[in-house]
Amino acid sequence: MSPTSQKAPGDARPGGRSARVRAAVHRAVEELLAESTVEALTIPVIADRAGVHSTTVYRRWGSVGELLAAVAINRFSGDLVVPDTGTLRGDLEQWATDVATDLADPDVSALMRATVGASKNGPADVCVVDRRAQLAAMLARETERGGRPPSVEQVEDFVLGPLYYRATYTAQPGDPAWARTLVTHVL
Amino acid sequence: MSPTSQKAPGDARPGGRSARVRAAVHRAVEELLAESTVEALTIPVIADRAGVHSTTVYRRWGSVGELLAAVAINRFSGDLVVPDTGTLRGDLEQWATDVATDLADPDVSALMRATVGASKNGPADVCVVDRRAQLAAMLARETERGGRPPSVEQVEDFVLGPLYYRATYTAQPGDPAWARTLVTHVL
Q1: pLDDT band at B94; cut points 50, 70, 90
Q2: What is the pLDDT of residue B56?
Q3: Looking at this predicted complex, what is its ipTM?
């Protein structure tokens, strides 16, 4: 159950051979990211690893950038369950801990960096669109309970901001204890 | 006057032909980033644009990743003067406004995204190492005045965090007014 319905090019056709090609190509991208420098990530190299023709990949995704966006949407969608602990603080603490744990995974950060690198004409929002939707769901639930939660923007700025800044630009990724202090700061 | 002395490979030799090659190659990278997709940014393409042999570029920088790091260090070093307004709040507000303005420049964000993309084996800290040094200088000055400033980490988390998060991952880059509210939040 993903809270977003966003689709990237090349990911619209379900089932059969098409699904197998998609899975092989996505897996090839993730394997190559884990192994190689960014220069090696070209469509011929990806197609070779996936065991499909380059023309198939070009026709379906168009560019490495589009393909990375598709892989990122797939990886960053629906893999975190929206916490439901009964309180907003509990929900946000669980969620921030989950995000910190995810960002500390080298495969996740490699995919994230490559997606940022490939999104030169705009922001790499495929990396965060699902987090934002999960956040909106938790804050809406608090409003229904009669609470007065901070805005989505405030929690993005002061919880996701530090988490993604550290993961992207510093050598000290956040740990769960620190992620929980960010929640205290915003509530 | 750059507050850091960090050097990237290929940038150590001053003067003469070496300096001209360096300038031509750096300019080629920035031009190509402004024009092309990330796939096109290979050493042969950069060398051709710079009018030098590929072997020169390979020998000096080794990879597109190292070269992008060198361009980023050059671009993100020393171009912001450390504000000295007489108060910590004034200094940080000026500094946050400068950072927000810089991050809103499409050429800056293109170079930043490409550097992140090329730094797949670690964080893209060349993008922020100079900001951190400027910040440390302002906070040290406040301590000398007898003040009790927040830590470098706190200002990084709650000022640089939101600024870089928005520039990298969202479609709403920060503006100067919003940047100043981040400072209010941390003081």
Answers
A1: very high
A2: 85
A3: 0.79
Q: Does B5 touch chain A (CB under 8 A)?
A: no
Which residue matches tokens 């108060």? B87
Question: In 3D, which of B82, B89, B90 has the Cα closest to residue B150?
Answer: B89
CATH says A81-186 is which class?
mainly alpha
Residue A3 near residue A141 (C-beta atoms within 8 A): no
Q: Which of A28-37, A164-173, B103-112, B122-131 has the lowest mean pLDDT?
A: A28-37
**How is chain A split into domains, by residue range?**
16-75, 81-186
CATH class of the domain defined by B16-75: mainly alpha
CATH of domain B80-186: 1.10.357.10
Same CATH topology for B16-75 and B80-186: the answer is no
Token pair for B3 = 């507050």
Residue to substitute from B154, B168, B182, B185, interface A, most A β-carbons within 10 A: B168
The verdict on B162 touching A (C-beta cutoff 8 Å) is yes
Report the candidate in B62, B43, B44, B52 with the shortest Cα–Cα distance to residue B22: B52
- What distance in Å separates the CA atoms of residue A114 and residue B33, rounded to the nearest whole number? 15
Residue that the structure tokens 């200002």 belong to: B155
Which residues in chain A are contacts of B122 at CB distance < 8 A?
171
User: Which residues lie closer than 8 Å to A149 by C-beta, 6 or more apart?
Assistant: A88, A138, A139, A142, A143
